[in-house]
Amino acid sequence: MNRFNAYVEANAERFIEELKEFCRQPSIVAQGIGLEEMGQLVRARLEKLGAEVRLMPVDDGPPVIYAELGRGQRTLLLYNHYDVQPPDPLDLWDSGPFDPRIREGKFYARGVADNKGDLLARLQAIEAYQATLGELPLKIKCVFEGEEEAGSPHLASFAAEHAELLAADGCLWETGHKDESERPTIALGLKGIMYLELRAHGAKSDLHSSLATIVPNPAWRLVWALSTLKDEDDNILVDGFMDHAAEPTAAEMEMLAAIPFEEEKMRANFGIPHFIRGLTGLEALKKHLYEPTCTICGLKAGYIGEGGKTVLPNTAMAKLDFRLVPNLEPDLVVNLLRQHLDKRGFSDIEVVPISGLHSAKAPPDAPIVKAAIVAAQAVYGQEPVVYPLMASSGPMYPLTQALGIPAVAAGVGHPGSNLHAPNENVRLEDYFQGIRFVGELIRRFAAS
C-alpha cells in the first residue's frame, strides 16, 4: 500500500479542499435546508470515480443516493448520510458552522464528524485505490441517505423494496472514532431508538398567571407525568419496560471485559465527577452499552425569554428518546408508555411518536469484522478496541441485519469531535488515517 499512501499524501491539500466544499453546503434535514444541493455534490463526486449513480426518490423526503462501482467476488456496502444536525446554538461556535476552518490541526464545521468526513474519506480512498492499484478488487455499493438525523423514516421501506439490489457480503457503517487513549475502535452493532413527544394541553390560550388558582397548568401536568418514568437512581419505571431488555450474553461480557474502559479520561472530557449511580469499571461499561435509556431531550412551556412574564401556559411539550437494547422494539415502547401513563391517570397526556429504529449487531466472526480488525492493525499499528454494541443508534437493522449483511462501524472521529454540538471537528491526522483504513479494508476484505 506504499503507492496508495503516497498518493493520499500528495493529494492531501486537494482532499481537504473537497471536504471544505462539502461542509460549506448546509444540509439540515430538520429544517429542509440544502439537501438537494448537497445530494448533487455527492452525486458529482461519485460520478468522478466512474460510479453508476442513481438518485432514488422516497416519499416526502430527500432521495437516497445509490451507486455501484468495481467488480469481484465480494461486495462491500458503504452506508453514510449527507444530512446534518441543526447548528444551534450559533453563539457557542468559535467560527461559522458552515464556514470550515482549520485550527491547531483540527477541521471545524457542522457535519464534518457526522457524517460528511467519513463519507468523503471513503470516496477519496476509492480514488486513491483506483489511481495506484488499478481496478477495485471487489464490488462496492453505496447507500447515502439524507434523513439519518431525522431518524431515517424512509430507509426501512427503501431497503425492503430494494433488498436484491442491496445484497452484499459486508457493510462499513457510517461512524467511528478513536478512544480516550488514541486507540482505534470498531463496533459491531448499535442500540435502537424511539424518539417521541409528550404533550399536555390546558386552556384554549395562555392566561394571566393569577388564574393558576382555578385553571390547570399543563406544564405541571407534564412534569408530574415525567416524574413517573424514572427514579433518582436512573431506573426506568415504565411498567414492563425492563422485562424486555436483553442481558448481554456470556460471550458479549467477555468482549466487554476486554475493552480498556478509560473512565477517568471520559469523566474529565465530560467535566463530571462521577458516573450515574457511582458506577465504575465493568459495571459502568455494561450499563453504558447494555442498558436502555429514557432521556428528556428538550422541554417547552410558557415564556422562556429574557426577563419575566407572568403567564399560565396553555400547552407543554417534552421531547424524549429511549435508546433500546435487543428485544426492546420501538412500537413496544410506545405501547408500554401509553399503558403506563393511562394507569396513573395521565390519559390526557398525548404520546406522539416521531421516529424509531431497531437495535442491530453483527457476529464477531464475520469476514467483514475480521478484515476490519486486520486493516486497523495495519494502519494504526495497534489492536483496535472492538465493541459488541455502540451506545448510539442508527438505521443499521433494516439496511444490514434484516438483509443478512454483517456490518462494522469505523470512522474518523475522536472523543472531542463534538458531534451534534457547537465546534464539531475532526483531527486532520485522523482524517487521513481514515482514508488509509478504507483502502486497507478494501484490499483485506476482497482477499478474505
Map the helices and strands.
Elements: H1 2-10, H2 12-24, H3 35-48, E1 52-58, E2 61-69, E3 75-81, E4 101-103, E5 106-108, H4 112-133, E6 139-145, H5 155-161, H6 163-166, E7 170-173, E8 185-187, E9 189-201, E10 207-208, H7 218-226, H8 250-257, H9 263-270, H10 281-290, E11 295-301, E12 311-312, E13 315-324, H11 330-343, E14 350-357, E15 360-361, H12 367-380, E16 385-387, E17 390-393, H13 396-399, E18 407-409, E19 425-427, H14 428-447
Helix pairs in contact: 1-4, 1-14, 2-4, 4-14, 12-14
Helix % is 25-40%
The CATH architecture of the largest domain can be given as 3-Layer(aba) Sandwich
Q: What form results from the Cα inertia axes?
A: globular
Biggest sheet strand order reads 1-2-6-3-7-18
Relative strand content: 15-25%
**Main sheet makeup:** 6 strands, mixed
Which stretches are low in confidence, meaning pLDDT under 50 for 5 or more residues running? none
